[in-house]
Specification:
The chain has 273 residues and is an alpha/beta fold. It has six helices and twelve strands. The structure holds fe (ii) ion.
């Protein structure tokens, strides 16, 4: 089974690049299941119902969130009726929406997707390791789910690597989001779980984390907030990670990064050909 995970869409340039190119990526490469992190899709902060629907219509089976989940307040409401949108599973009890759900892929496989947030240099949420363990107990790979994907939205690579090894052999893919910079450590761990510390973002890399450069530089130099952060508006580079999953085991047989766009060296997974 071919899985594609795309990192955080940032602003209009990021989401439009994905909305334009995802349909042909799905068709040309016979992708079975696509997950997109959308927590920065609306002007860099949160997601609206319309944008979420546009990304789903373009071919995303699931849209995940993170620390910016509720920046657009409407997400607190529409997440209840949009079961393809996931917020972090380790938010407090009573938080709207869901953090894990089982979906049918285009090839008929059942895919459990989970969004979880780290706690290092992030909000003090519930223990992400315990939360993931609880959800996996309820829906183990090989029994209820044919494949399992974890989007770990976190700052610290140490916490993400620990999650990868904690889940090694029990899930198909652990991929990090949030830092907006793709890492080069994509690998299949010892027991068969695909892992990458950060998928990178889908946005303009001629900026600071997808934002226009001027205000971030100003804040580092002067320590006085000037204007609001605005997403950079140059052409976006799409970044993500592709995984081939053996449906007999749910484990990964191949992993490779995807980078398409003007600023980073382009790469397409060779096992897609
Ligand atoms: Fe984030």
């Amino acid at each position: 089974m071919r899985l594609l995970f795309l990192g955080d869409l940032v602003g209009k340039t990021g989401r439009n690049a994905v909305i334009e190119r995802l349909p042909s990526l799905v068709d040309d490469h016979a992708l079975d299941f696509v997950i997109v992190n959308g927590e920065n899709a609306a002007g860099g902060f949160g997601i609206t119902e319309e944008i979420c629907q546009d990304v789903i219509d373009a071919g995303a089976d699931v849209v995940t969130l993170g620390n910016h989940s509720w920046d657009q307040r409407e997400a607190l409401v529409f997440i209840e009726r949009q079961d393809r949108l996931l917020r972090p599973v380790n938010y407090p009890k009573g938080t709207p929406g869901r953090g894990a759900n089982l979906y049918n892929a285009r090839n008929g496989a059942r895919v459990l997707v989970m969004n979880v947030m780290g706690r290092i240099y992030m909000d003090a949420l519930d223990d992400p390791f315990a939360a993931v363990e609880r959800e996996l107990d309820a829906c183990p790979m090989g029994e209820v789910a044919d494949a399992v994907v974890i989007d770990m939205h976190a700052e610290a690579t140490s916490e993400k690597q620990a999650m990868g090894h904690f889940l090694d052999g029990r899930v198909s893919l652990v991929v990090g989001t949030h830092t907006h910079v793709p890492t080069a450590d994509h690998q299949i761990l010892a027991h068969g779980t695909a892992y990458m510390s950060d998928a990178g973002m889908c946005g303009d890399y001629d900026g600071v984390l997808g934002m226009d450069k001027e205000e971030p530089i100003n804040r580092f130099l002067r320590k006085i907030p000037g204007a609001r952060f605005q997403p950079a508006t140059g052409e976006a580079t799409i970044c993500g990670v592709a995984v081939e999953v053996d449906l007999n085991t749910g484990l990964a047989t191949h992993i490779a990064p995807l980078r398409l766009g003007p600023n980073l060296s382009e790469t397409i997974p060779d096992f897609w050909n």
